[in-house]
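Input/output pair, single chain:
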Amino acid sequence: MTKVLIVGPKKSQHIQKWYENAKDFELSLFTIDPGGREFKTDLNEYSYSIKNRRLAFLFSIPLFIYTWWKVKPNITNFHYLSSYALLSLFVPKKNLILNTWGSDVNNYINSKNTIHLYLIKKALKRFSWISTPAQHMKIKLIKLGADSDKIDVYQYGVPLLNGRKSGTTTCIKFVSNRNWDELYRIDIIIDAFVILVRQEEINAKLFIYGRGGDISKKLDFLFETSPELKEFIIVKGYVEHKLMLEEMRDMDIFVSVPKIDGMPLSLLEAMEIGLLPLVSNIDANNEWVNECNGIICKNVIAHELKCKMLQAYRKSECTSCESTAESDWVFKNRMLVREKGNFDKNTNLFLNKIKEISGE
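Output:
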């Protein structure tokens, strides 16, 4: 049985997804970021909580070395390039593999920390194989020092989801479900939608999922000064993921306009369900959406996004009238996700790659 030592932040919950279908593996986990949900498969966990985050990496080195020699894995699977992957510098260079995410590459590609970049470059040369969620991130990894022929582009993806519910409502429903951090520009989505409903004679609502940041204060002030907007803007807040996806089957247009992203799984979920994507003009979105299968906002300011929302509204109105068959863009989006971003397909590719590298 292949012994795999997973090295990464458990609380992020990304790692659990990669191993959800794992069978015939002896799994162990080393983490200094405990928490998150449990793995669905049996696993030996070596979890340490280090309070001083500035010194966490230094303290983790001897703990990791001890764990690695205790487990003696066939494969060591690192997650998160800019931190945990640097631990690869302290074990033999054999059967080391890396899964990169969006933030760990995007946040460091333009770093001025020469020592950190030097360590990242040295670490990247040690891996037998690297997965990255998007083509634009592969280019950045090569710039950081990775070998092109060792990189495969895919994320664990999304499962098959139920499509949009058929209904008779004439209200077009927009949905935003990204976290309320500044980079996702939820404030601009709200401002654009307010302009839309005030300037145009339309029947539309905006549903906002998420939490964090200063958006709650913005919404409180908006509803206090313009209480009539409560009819058009529905604040859902945090909702359990499975329930949110079910509720999204009643929506029409998915709005996501981040400044930067890795591989937007929320976009893939919306495309799988059958929502029209309205997205920002960034590499992560452009790999999935163009003017044929969605709408792209090149300049994310309120008035311009409002115009794109109106365009999406008109397109959704036309789609709702097509009662005999799904629109071409709905079908194409769903097929694109199932070809490149299917959960079972991509996680099996990953697990088979582990077996291939281990020689078992």
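The chain has a mean pLDDT of 92. The first helix runs from residue 14 to 18.
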